[in-house]
C-alpha cells in the first residue's frame, strides 16, 4: 500500500510545481512556498506550432473549398467563352464594317437574338439587333466606304459571347456608338475564319488567353497546394511514406533500402 500511495503521489499535479523549501521539508500545495514551473522554450515552440498548424489547416481547407466553387463558377463565364473564341479563329486584323440594319425590338418573341445583352444568363424582353456589311480587308482610318462587300447583313455582336455585365458592357451606349445618328459610316470589326456569320466589335487574343490561363491555373494551384499541405500534415500514410523515402535515400545500396522498407512495413515497429 505504501508503494502504491507513493507512486500516486509522484503522479499528482504537485509534480508540475517547483518547491522552494529545503529538502525534507513539507508544505501545503496552496502555500506560497510552491511556485509553478515555467514552460521551457521547446514547450512554447511546440504549443505555438500546434496552434499555427490548426489555424493554417483551417484556412487551407477553406481555400480548397472556395477554389473548387470558384472554378465551377468560372467555367460558364470565362472558360467556355474563351474556348469558343479560340475555336472561332478571329482574324488578327480588324476588317471594315458598315451598319446595314438596326432594329430595336421588344417581347421575347422578337428578341430571339440580340447584338448586346446585359447579363449572359438572363432572357431579355428588349434588345438591339444590328446587322452589318463586311469587307475582309484591313481597316484604315479615313478610308472611303467600300463599293463591294464580301458579306452582307451579318449579325453584329458586341463581343464573341454577345453579352456582358456593366460597367464593361452597356447595350444602350453600344447601339448609340455603332448605329446612332452620330455613328461612323464604317468602323473596324473582327470576323471569324471558321464561322463566317460571326462578326464582333470587340476582340483581343491576349485578353482571351490571359483570362483562360488565370481561370484554369489559379483555382487549380490553390486547390492542389492546400490539399498537399493538409495531406502532409494530417495524413499518417503520406507522412510515413515521406519519412521512409528520406531515410531510404541515406542508404548506399538497394539492399539496405529494401531492408528499411521491410522494417517500416513490419507492424511490430509501430510503437505509437
UniProtKB/TrEMBL annotation:
Report the transmembrane regions from the record. 54-79, 212-233
Give the keywords, sorted.
Membrane, Transmembrane, Transmembrane helix
List every stretch annotated Disordered: 1-36
Any one Pfam family here would be TipE
Q: Where is the composition biased (Low complexity)?
A: 1-10
Keyword Ligase tagged:
no
Name the source's superkingdom: Eukaryota
A GO CC term assigned to this protein in UniProt: plasma membrane
Q: What is this protein called?
A: Protein tipE
GO terms (molecular function) for this protein are:
sodium channel regulator activity
Q: May I ask which residue range the UniProt record assigns to the signal sequence?
A: none
GO terms for biological process?
A: regulation of sodium ion transport
Amino acid at each position: 500500500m505504501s508503494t502504491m500511495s507513493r507512486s500516486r503521489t509522484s503522479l499528482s499535479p504537485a509534480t508540475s510545481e517547483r518547491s522552494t523549501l529545503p529538502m525534507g521539508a513539507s508544505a501545503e500545495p496552496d502555500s506560497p512556498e510552491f511556485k509553478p514551473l515555467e514552460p521551457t522554450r521547446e514547450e512554447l515552440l511546440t504549443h505555438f506550432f500546434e496552434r499555427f498548424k490548426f489555424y493554417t489547416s483551417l484556412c487551407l481547407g477553406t481555400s480548397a473549398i472556395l477554389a473548387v466553387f470558384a472554378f465551377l463558377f468560372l467555367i460558364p463565364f470565362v472558360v467556355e467563352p474563351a474556348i469558343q473564341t479560340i475555336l472561332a479563329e478571329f482574324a488578327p486584323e480588324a476588317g471594315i464594317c458598315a451598319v446595314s440594319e438596326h432594329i430595336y425590338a421588344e417581347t421575347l418573341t422578337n428578341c430571339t437574338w440580340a447584338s448586346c445583352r446585359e447579363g449572359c444568363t438572363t432572357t431579355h424582353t428588349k434588345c438591339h439587333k444590328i446587322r452589318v456589311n463586311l469587307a475582309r480587308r484591313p481597316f484604315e482610318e479615313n478610308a472611303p466606304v467600300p463599293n463591294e462587300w464580301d458579306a452582307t447583313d451579318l449579325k453584329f455582336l458586341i463581343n464573341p459571347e454577345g453579352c456582358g455585365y456593366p460597367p464593361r458592357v452597356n447595350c444602350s451606349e453600344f447601339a448609340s456608338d455603332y448605329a446612332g445618328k452620330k455613328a461612323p459610316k464604317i468602323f473596324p470589326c473582327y470576323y471569324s475564319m471558321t464561322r463566317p456569320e460571326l462578326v464582333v466589335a470587340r476582340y483581343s487574343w491576349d485578353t482571351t488567353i490571359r483570362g483562360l490561363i488565370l481561370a484554369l491555373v489559379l483555382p487549380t494551384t490553390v486547390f492542389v497546394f492546400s490539399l498537399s499541405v493538409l495531406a502532409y500534415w494530417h495524413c499518417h500514410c503520406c507522412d510515413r511514406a515521406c519519412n521512409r523515402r528520406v531515410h531510404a535515400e541515406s542508404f548506399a545500396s538497394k539492399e539496405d533500402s529494401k531492408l528499411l522498407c521491410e522494417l517500416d512495413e513490419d507492424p511490430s515497429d509501430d510503437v505509437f
